[in-house]
Q: What sequence folds into this?
């Protein structure tokens, strides 16, 4: 139908057979009443549109823009993962503080998930060493909030946007003992390196006693059954020594 036919149909009170809304084409019973501008400028009407998938796309886009804009000028950085449940008086917490300090002294900013526990420990170490302390938070049903040692913080709605920031702005990962969220971040990093979706970066697991069972399972079950190769064990390092962890990161990123 031509534009003149369309106008004539509208004038006669008939629905046009074809409607173009920007890049979208609608025909027959999919034609909508009114125009896009009309719906945008109309202050009345339902508000369900803010929960639709097209609107979510804009929210996702805005989160990428905020993240990229905030983190683009960071110095070289390392992402530190670990449990939100790590107690402040525990040896694991103390190790996190030490790692945060050592990373700053080696010339890195420290990026964490911004929460409590091991994340807070690494941020605390970065602040005490007068370095750049970054926290990338996530919206959860149980509110955690950014820990008080975060100097640059960004809160995200979407996990996948947050994960992109962890990978894009870090030259390596240090993984402290943690739960399902930490394992998720660890295996995503391993997968990205294994599949060469990213330029290889170092992944250091801190705490051989904690990670030993996982490494044994990878060797004796996953690799033994042909689900992965022996070479995949070279994608990460396991250590109990802070200096060695920092040395591995420093060496592999050429600092």
A:
């Amino acid at each position: 139908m031509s534009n003149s036919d369309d106008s004539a149909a509208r004038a006669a009170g008939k629905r046009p057979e074809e409607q173009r809304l920007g890049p979208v084409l609608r025909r027959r019973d999919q034609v909508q009443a009114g125009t896009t501008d009309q719906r945008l400028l109309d202050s009345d009407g339902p508000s369900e549109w803010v929960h639709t998938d097209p609107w979510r796309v804009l929210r996702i886009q805005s989160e990428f823009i905020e993240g990229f804009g905030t983190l683009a000028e960071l110095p070289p950085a390392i992402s530190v993962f670990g449990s939100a449940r790590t107690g402040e008086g525990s040896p694991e917490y103390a190790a996190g503080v030490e790692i945060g300090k050592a990373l700053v002294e080696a010339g890195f900013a420290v990026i964490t998930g911004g929460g409590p526990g091991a994340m807070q420990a690494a941020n605390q170490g970065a602040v005490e060493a007068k370095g750049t302390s970054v926290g990338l938070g996530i919206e959860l049903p149980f509110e955690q909030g950014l820990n008080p040692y975060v100097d640059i913080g960004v809160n995200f709605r979407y996990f996948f946007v947050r994960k992109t920031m962890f990978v894009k702005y870090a030259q390596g990962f240090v993984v402290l003992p943690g739960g399902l969220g930490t394992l998720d971040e660890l295996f995503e990093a391993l997968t990205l390196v294994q599949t060469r979706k990213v330029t290889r970066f170092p992944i250091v697991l801190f705490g051989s006693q904690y990670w030993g069972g996982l490494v044994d399972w990878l060797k004796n079950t996953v690799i033994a059954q042909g689900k992965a190769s022996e070479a995949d064990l070279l994608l990460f390092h396991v250590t109990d020594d802070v200096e060695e962890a920092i040395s591995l990161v420093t060496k592999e990123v050429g600092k």
